Amino acid sequence: MRFIHAADIHLGRQFSGLSRSSPSLGKLFLRAGYSAWDRIVNRAIDLQVDFITLGGDTFDASNPSVRPRVAFRDGVARLRHAGIPVYAVLGNHDPLRTFPDLLRSLPGLFLFGPEPEAKEITQGAVIQGVSFENSAERANLARKIQRISGTELAIGLLHTNASGNANHGDYAPCTLDDLRAGGMDVWCLGHVHSPSVLSDAPLILYSGSAQGALAKENGPRGCYLVSVDVCEQASWEFLPTAPVRWENLRLDISDCGCPEDVLDKAEQACSELVSGVPDLDAIVVRISLLGKLSSNGLSDMTKDEEFRSLLSERLENLQVPVFPAELVDCGSLGKEPDLSLDGEGFLADLMRIADRYVKDPELRSELADRIHGELAKINRKYYEAMFDSEIWKQNPVLAEGHVNHAAELIARMFLEQRS
Ligand SMILES: [Mn+2]
């Protein structure tokens, strides 16, 4: 059995910040948002998958306007004609309470309600899920979903913040252990916008947003193709479907003599970014200039209108157009920061500390206690449930999970910077 899991499509997203600074880029992203959904539908039809799961935030607005509604309806209709049903839960952006009546009973769509439900897809195989009733869902919905005895294949579908991802609202929070305790074979999640596989067995994954909306949602975006069968471990493949991609480009210009050299270097680097990437309409790039020009041709390239428009023209004419949304001068840094474990200075010290915490369980547990104390100081009431001293003592795994996650995030952040 093969299916596609997508989430956080955010149909109708306006990209208003970007539209203000660059109306043409705003329009590009608006179109890309719809086209990302169309491409997911196309891939499902091309691959003749058995069904699609949608993990919530299909719509950006809780009361979507006519264009996103039509786009969704048309996609579901195309899938239905191809014999592919859609199973969807709703998230914080498109909760049930305000979900359009017109779409609730769309042919070809099975929409999960506010109480956990199980829907049989074939004999012995079920999808179990639950939708957000309201946007600020604080309940642990994962704990409400337990494998029904006798099912041969169980797929969980949920919009949730698993493991306290700090970049996203803490809606329907749960831990990885909560998900594992449900006994499902596969968990298809929505809410976290980065595509990520949290566990192989059971397979637990976030598809991520269908189209990166901000510079921090960089890299490929799309959906997962999941293959799953009774008695077999589920396997997965990421399918990049977003027509527009955000990238961060760090350009060392210390070997450039003049602005002309910078243009050439930027063009070369951007041409490498787009080469060999299929089905891409455009790349939007944030360029950080590192180092200083050896001879001074221009006092500040990032503020020079002529330089900027020349750079835009050159990049837009590449085989796939590249749009420089931002050009930042990091010249004062002089050179790349030293993030090696044996380096010198503040960042290297931080790297070593993060490394120690990642490797040493005792240190982690000490840090857990300190985090507990600090968080309780900030907002005792909010963290009471999570960090209630009894729960904390009884559930060191929960505490350790949070600290592990934090340490990993810090380490990964620096390692990514370093690569
Ligand atoms: Mn979302």
UniProtKB/TrEMBL annotation:
<dbReference type="InterPro" id="IPR029052">
    <property type="entry name" value="Metallo-depent_PP-like"/>
</dbReference>
<dbReference type="GO" id="GO:0004527">
    <property type="term" value="F:exonuclease activity"/>
</dbReference>
<dbReference type="InterPro" id="IPR004843">
    <property type="entry name" value="Calcineurin-like_PHP"/>
</dbReference>
<feature type="domain" description="Calcineurin-like phosphoesterase">
    <location>
        <begin position="1"/>
        <end position="195"/>
    </location>
</feature>
<dbReference type="Pfam" id="PF00149">
    <property type="entry name" value="Metallophos"/>
</dbReference>
<protein>
    <submittedName>
        <fullName>DNA repair exonuclease</fullName>
    </submittedName>
</protein>
<keyword id="KW-0540">Nuclease</keyword>
<dbReference type="InterPro" id="IPR041796">
    <property type="entry name" value="Mre11_N"/>
</dbReference>
<keyword id="KW-0269">Exonuclease</keyword>
<dbReference type="InterPro" id="IPR050535">
    <property type="entry name" value="DNA_Repair-Maintenance_Comp"/>
</dbReference>
<keyword id="KW-0378">Hydrolase</keyword>
